């Protein structure tokens, strides 16, 4: 897992609520079998016109946001499909942090697994960040250790984050290795499982 | 007496499942939870298997894992290889991965192939008290059995393949109680759309939903699956219905269930997972079934719903600036005028199928409306059974002949036009009455416009070319019993 401690970067805004993962990465890009190079497909239908040219009316195409690594988003960001490709696409487009009033549950889990930090702030704070970001050239610091967002003009906002996800990000520890280190406990649990539970290699299944 | 009935504080089904699956860690904050069944499909698994290989890890419990091909499979011509080479490669990788790891696979030509959330119940693999995951958000469907079932991303798929466990935190519970009796012509789908409209697309975020009340109890297992399927569209990862006699009877005789006295023993264990009287939920929402009507979505998320007798809303009627902007954007995408009567919206396509509404009962309800009618000449309508078992059962009842005689296409099972990863897609600007679960922009094809409805509403729209109130129509009596597909 990619470690995350502190990040400084340029903010870009996407001022709409309920952005679903179908918009972040449309289904035609889900047939590939690797984790890389989804950045160009991120927000595909909103970002490009029928001829593959950038749509000038799409916020993230504005030149002031070029090189942005922090996305200021709306409520319920990442709702819908569980596709982790959405996180790979946002990371591929250059984002390291998404700040929003709320995130969909599966998107949050997927983000934490990939070192893309979902920062949940109160709507008022998100609005303040959005206003400043919209002027362009707005850089902030996102500090996971202190669970704080700061800018150069004295803005400080603290955020909550899942403690387990935070520990994994700060330490770069792999949740799978952590699970496998419990293999004795897993084995003991398995020996206690009720015998009525089904098996997929049983008769009449495959 | 089991450990739960001795507990002083009455517990919910969710609490019982959670506590009985904690392998290690602290069940009050973060625990390693054992997964009883892991379902796998072609789209969200290749990177997980690749991750295992690169770390020299293996699949811990192939016997608790089942894979199926459903998302990209063609629903028309299957005797020749699919011309979509990228999709074909993804399917090939699933087959290779399953073979190498000894994971059972229902491939394209298997007699049990179907949509992942449809085949699990048919096989009796989803039982009360279980934990079930799949790299697919609509895994919430399976909570209908009183199981804790939820969607995960590919990294978590890898975690479950490797360890059969997941790191999870307990979450608050939301009770959605529906009391009374559903009126004629109003289905489980309408109930679910009404719930999302009421709660909102983020309203259940961070919770596990439990559906309760007499209207929920009266639903068949298939109706319960529809309701739980749409839980994710209200933002909750999981929704469940406490197990009862309906659950037990559905599971009797299924391949995954025990038989004879072992079945009775299992049934008792299942019922012990039911939510106890007096158990407390963190929040409760109550709806009255008698007030529910057939619903049609007008916008670009499943919370944007209207009664079939209603109108497309006016932007100015929304309370906040953010909502007005969102509504205006949705109407623009959908090509709809404010104030248009829902029954005056004309459609080009009809899709009946999906993990939401692709089961036998759904096809019966649609066929009862289609019988003796004729699909409007301006409309192309397709019926995609949720599984090969559903298809066989429907054909045994003659539903396929009713559909084809009326001008519907009768196709092979798969996810199909619910998400358009196979050739079944809308053309830009095409408008579809769909029994699926998401009306997001481009979901059924770039530029396509989706209206979510129940199966009978979709069938009625196919015949008339526009939405009509199915309560004003006379469904045909069909032959066939109430048994679900086996």
Distance between the termini of chain B: 33 Å
Average pLDDT taken over every residue of chain B: 96
Strand order of the largest sheet of chain B: 5-4-3-6-7
- N-end to C-end Cα span of chain A: 36 Å
> Which ranges of chain A are low-confidence, i.e. pLDDT below 50, for 5 or more consecutive residues?
none
Strand composition percent of chain A: 15-25%
Q: What spatial order of strands do you see in the largest sheet of chain A?
A: 4-3-2-1-5-6-7
Write down the Rg of chain A.
Answer: 20 Å
C-alpha geometry of chain A: globular
Biggest interface, which chains?
A-B, 61 and 88 residues
The helix content of chain B, as a percent range, equals 25-40%
- Structure class of chain A: alpha/beta
Structure, described:
The complex is a heterodimer of chains A (206) and B (486). By secondary structure, chain A is α/β, with parallel strands linked by helices. Chain A has 8 helices and 7 strands. The radius of gyration of chain A is 20 Å and the shape is globular. The mean pLDDT of chain A is 96. Chain B has helices at residues 13-20, 46-54, 85-101, 116-122, 154-163, 188-199, 214-217, 221-229, 245-251, 260-271, 321-334, 354-357, 360-370, 388-397, 399-406, 455-464; strands at residues 22-26, 30-34, 37-41, 65-68, 105-106, 131-134, 148-151, 165-168, 173-179, 208-212, 238-241, 283-288, 295-297, 305-307, 349-352, 380-383, 409-410, 431-434, 449-452. Chain B is of the alpha/beta class and 486 residues long. In chain B, strands 5-4-3-6-7 form a 5-stranded parallel sheet. Chain B has a 5-stranded parallel sheet with strand order 17-16-15-18-19. Chain B has a 4-stranded parallel sheet with strand order 11-10-9-12. At the A-B interface, helix 4, helix 7 and helix 8 of A face strand 2, helix 2, helix 3, strand 5 and helix 5 of B.
What labels describe this entry?
heterodimer, A: 206 residues, 8 helices, B: 486 residues, five-stranded parallel sheet, 16 helices
